[in-house]
């Protein structure tokens, strides 16, 4: 069962980070704390074991892991690029902070109030030490001897060798049709560089990248995939946000350049996608199973009504009318649980249906495979889009008939906090059904005997 999702653009909320990591964040600590604590009201009711930070840190079990969150964003909400970019940024910040002081000095923190006009020479926008380093060299060794940077391509996980443009190696798209242009989702370093340059030109900026800055090639690829208008995983950014980001990346590769964009992305993840993901995860059955459960609930209520009417019209005593409470109790409780996306039969075993994309996993990766121990980089590939219409499981699942979908494969729910939420919903449905059943049976008991048979 898919809950409706509404998107609202945040006005401006500070990125949750350490005040020491990015200058200028001290004055927004109160906003950061409110986002972490969930006091905004959007994530009210989500227990701490299923909090956003705990999921990102890998402290939960299936079906609430980072991989499950990613699958939800990809297949249900269709906004996986937000989490992919957020995970990349966290990893990028760690790698940047692990650099030596000399390498970090090449990319100063981004402070808009200290930016010099764009009309000034490019070299004047650098710090004195950086300008000295950039004269004819890529870096300076520890003993002060200029050296050429040769390890960026070897150590950069985002580097892809450029494919030769020959007739036998042309990339093909759209059913195998050769093309002379390179798509960023298929091409190598040159393609991402060209697309990044196009993004700067579209924003009215002149791009003269400082190759001596750390991770400059990686930043070009990120711009090509997440920021450029035709990026394979383009973020939902306003023109103002995109222009401000490109202006910052024009001068530095410091993580602080992404501050405003990460603010928007993290707000969307914390206050919209995460609560929706938890509500969606509570549903233990697929849509056909939930509809089937609702039908059973309505059938139980109808059965209770028929029994109560027949007993009322008969010459049996009022005490026998209480027997109809069984049908009301079963029917109403099943209907209430199904209305919240739960099947009481599956809940009795603490099982859930496998998702469509989990049903057709390979033999060496069983369904429900726990991804907690995997690195964040394995959760996504920056070289592909988030489109899943061509994935093999889509036509296979569509060929399944309704009966088979109702009785799809099941798996045990490992996350204790999720089972506890489902127990609470089940208990609420039982109590609500009991109250309503007593009221309905009491009304029937108030009628006199029918004595019709």
TrEMBL record:
Keywords: Membrane, Transmembrane, Transmembrane helix. Residues 120-139, 147-169 have a biased composition (Polar residues). The chain crosses the membrane at residues 291-313, 320-339, 425-447. It holds the Pfam family RGS. Residues 14-23, 31-40 have a biased composition (Low complexity). Residues 215-279 form the RGS domain. Signal peptide: none annotated. The keyword 4Fe-4S does not apply. The keyword Magnesium does not apply. InterPro entries: RGS, RGS_sf, RGS_subdomain_2. Residues 14-40, 112-188 are annotated as: Disordered. It comes from Pleomassaria siparia CBS 279.74. This is RGS domain-containing protein.
């Amino acid at each position: 069962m898919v809950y409706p999702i509404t998107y609202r653009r945040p006005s401006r909320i500070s990125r949750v980070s350490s005040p020491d990591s990015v200058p200028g964040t001290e004055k927004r600590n109160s906003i950061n704390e409110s986002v972490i604590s969930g006091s905004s009201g959007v994530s009210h009711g989500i227990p701490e074991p299923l909090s956003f930070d705990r999921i990102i840190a890998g402290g939960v079990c299936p079906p609430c892991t980072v991989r499950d969150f990613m699958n939800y964003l990809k297949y249900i909400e269709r906004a996986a690029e937000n989490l992919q970019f957020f995970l990349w940024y966290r990893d990028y910040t760690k790698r940047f902070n692990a650099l030596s002081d000399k390498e970090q000095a090449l990319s100063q923190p981004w402070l808009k109030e200290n930016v010099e006009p764009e009309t000034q020479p490019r070299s004047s926008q650098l710090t004195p030490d950086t300008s000295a380093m950039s004269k004819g060299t890529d870096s300076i060794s520890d003993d002060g001897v200029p050296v050429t940077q040769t390890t960026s391509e070897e150590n950069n996980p985002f580097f892809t060798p450029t494919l030769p443009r020959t007739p036998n190696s042309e990339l093909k798209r759209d059913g195998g049709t050769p093309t002379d242009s390179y798509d960023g989702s298929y091409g190598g370093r040159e393609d991402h560089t060209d697309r990044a340059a196009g993004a700067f030109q579209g924003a009215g900026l002149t791009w003269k990248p400082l190759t001596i800055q750390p991770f400059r090639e990686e930043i070009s690829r990120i711009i090509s995939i997440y920021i450029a208008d035709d990026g394979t995983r383009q973020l939902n950014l306003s023109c103002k946000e995109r222009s401000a980001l490109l202006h910052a990346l024009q001068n530095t590769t410091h993580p602080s350049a992404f501050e405003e964009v990460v603010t928007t992305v993290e707000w969307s993840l914390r206050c919209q996608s995460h609560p929706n993901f938890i509500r969606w995860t509570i549903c233990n059955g697929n849509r056909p199973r939930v509809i089937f459960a609702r039908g059973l609930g309505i059938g139980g209520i109808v059965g209770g009504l028929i029994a109560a009417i027949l007993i009322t019209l008969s010459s049996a005593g009022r005490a026998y009318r209480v027997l109809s409470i069984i049908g009301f109790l079963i029917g109403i409780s099943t209907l209430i649980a199904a209305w919240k996306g739960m099947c009481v039969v599956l809940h009795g075993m603490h099982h859930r249906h496998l998702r469509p994309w989990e049903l057709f996993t390979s033999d060496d990766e069983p369904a429900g495979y726990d991804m907690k121990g995997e690195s964040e980089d394995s959760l996504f590939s920056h070289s592909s889009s988030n489109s899943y219409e061509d994935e093999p499981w889509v036509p296979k699942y569509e060929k399944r008939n309704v009966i088979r979908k109702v009785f799809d494969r099941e798996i045990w729910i490992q996350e204790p906090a999720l089972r506890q939420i489902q127990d609470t919903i089940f208990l609420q449905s039982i109590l609500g059904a009991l109250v309503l059943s007593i009221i309905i049976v009491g009304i029937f008991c108030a009628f006199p005997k029918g004595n019709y048979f």
